Amino acid sequence: MLTMHAAALPSADEASSDSDSLATRELKVEVSAQSPLHVAFLTTEYPTERFFAGGLATYLRRTAYSLHDLGHRPEVFTISHENGTVKDGEIPVHRVARCQKTFQAMTKLPFLWRYNDLALLLANAWSLASRLRQRHAELPFDVVQTANYRACGLFTALRPVAPVVTRVSSYEPMWREAYAWPITGPQRLIERAEIRQCRSSTAIYAPSRLIADVLSRKERIPTRVLAPPYDLESFDAKVGCCKASPRPHPYMLFFGTIGRMKGCDRLAEILSELLLRNPEMRFLFVGRISQRPDGERYDSYIRRYAGDFENRVEILSEIRHNELLPLVANARVVTLPSRIDNLPNACMEAMALRRVVVATKDASFEELISDGWNGFLVPQDDHQALLETLHDAWHLPPEERSRMGDLARESLQRLAPDVTILPLLRLFQEVSQRSVGSC
User: Fold this and answer.
1) pLDDT, tens digit, for every residue of 124-152?
2) Cα 166 to chain center, whole Å?
3) pLDDT tens readout for residues 303-313
4) DSSP labels for 135-179?
5) Which among 222, 157, 163, 223 is positioned nearest to 196, based on CA atoms?
6) pLDDT band at 8 (very low <50, low <70, confident <90, very high)
7) Are the CB atoms for 375 and 360 separated by under 8 Å?
8) Matching CATH number, 34-229+416-438, of 3.40.50.2000, 3.90.1150.10, 1.10.1040.10, 3.30.420.40
9) Are 351 and 372 in contact (CB under 8 A)?
10) What pLDDT, on a 0 to 100 scale, did the predictor assign at position 17?
11) Per-residue pLDDT reduced to its tens digit, 292-306
């Protein structure tokens, strides 16, 4: 049975104590006394583009808006299908198309001619660095923040025009292991490129303690922890613009990449028993569908395990964010049984919508969820515990489900932009005072 208790989040996560409030006020005074910063963000994805995976793009938009609201000047450089500059509200977004000549030249290098994926990575990183240099010559930047994903800031870090801060959104060796992908020559080089970018950067930070500790321990790269901003008011406004999504049956929801890293094989293997126990339940999967190591797509894998209950399982491939949010808001329970994660946006969105979330331990969810208080955590690879917790969460009395959902949302207050953006600004101001030659 589920154990529910009224306990606060761990003290390290509390943002409401007197001492923390005092520290926040002092930090706010400190950073507000500094001059406005001109900040460049380099990324592989952003919401203005046709296709973006979600978490990284959503984080960057929130951060850029938060900086702009405080009087700073953020600009975004993103890989795109075309070149040009557009506006996302008041944020300039520089679209950077991969240079075909650069890509072709890289595929002719002795160690790249067989590795198109690696050549594409390097061509994208080169194109971002080139466009950044052009813009820096027009209006110099004080600091550059780049994602580590696919080493998109590699050449920017190797030849910086301004101090470079890398945000670690993933650690590829752990992601590869979680997906059970084999280590190949190109993959090994991609992982080395991401680490080389980190080592060449002025400073490194990660959104979760889990990933920061792993990078510090395994790669011996000192990594700070800076929680991402989460603006509940802006999120509510976005949700208010979404269409309602009435569904005839109550459902449990998974959303994210449908694959092994996110634990969808675990859900598949308990699905028939879960649906057997709960005849009124439907199960909805939403997200990009990945493949198993043997090549089977996860949608067919899930349906195969659902067996006689396949007609009560629905799998939707990638949909627009404004179509996803009503599905999250109307789910009775959200489950995110990841093998590894990095303070995922999916969990924060579900909590902001007052959903009861069932997630896994040792995957960074502990930094958002206190088990039995504002959600539930189950051990890794304990299929029975996952089954029992999902079953019990499904049968929570409505008032208990509502209470837990309210606590989930309230716990996100500590990620309010006026709190979390300040340590990032302090880091930016710290590194911006260093000369490029000392980076």
Assistant:
1) 999 999 999 999 999 999 999 999 999 99
2) 15
3) 999 999 999 99
4) HHHHS--SEEEEE-GGGTTHHHHHS-SS-EEEE----HHHHHHHH
5) 157
6) very low
7) no
8) 3.40.50.2000
9) no
10) 46
11) 988 999 999 999 999
According to DSSP, the β-strands at 38-43 and 84-88 are unpaired
Nearest-Å Rg of the Cα atoms of the chain is: 22
The token pair that represents 211 in the structure block = 């990933």
CA distance 353 to 410: 11
pLDDT digits (tens, 9 = 90+) for 68-79: 999 999 999 999
Tokens of 329: 């808001």
Token pair recorded at residue 228: 């991402």
- Enter the tokens of residue 331: 């789910």
Segment (H or E) for 394: helix 383-394
Q: How many other C-beta atoms are found inside a 10 Å radius of the C-beta of residue 241? A: 8
Q: What is residue 48's predicted lDDT score, i.e. its pLDDT?
A: 93
Strand 356-360 relative to strand 333-336, pairing:
parallel
What is d(CA 89, CA 65) in angstroms, rounded to the nearest whole number? 9
CB 166 within 8 A of CB 198: yes
Distances (CA, A) of 189 to 63, 119, 165, 174: 30, 11, 22, 15
Query: Residue length, the chain?
Result: 439
CATH number of 233-415, picked from 3.40.1390.10, 3.40.50.300, 3.40.50.2000, 3.10.580.10: 3.40.50.2000
Paired strand residues for 206? 225
What pLDDT, on a 0 to 100 scale, did the predictor assign at position 194?
A: 97
pTM exceeding 0.90? no
Q: Which two tokens stand for residue 397?
A: 């009395």
Using CA atoms, how far apart are residues 385 and 380, in angstroms rounded to an integer?
9
Q: Which residues have C-beta within 8 Å of that of residue 6, sequence separation ≥ 6? A: 373
Domain ranges of the chain: 34-229+416-438, 233-415
* Cα torsion through 44, 45, 50, 51, rounded to 10: 90
- How far is it, in rounded angstroms, from Cα 259 to Cα 339? 10
| Residue 101, CA distances (Å) to 97, 119, 120, 126 in order | 12, 12, 11, 11
Mean pLDDT of 66-89: 95
pLDDT range class, residue 247, cuts 50, 70, 90: confident
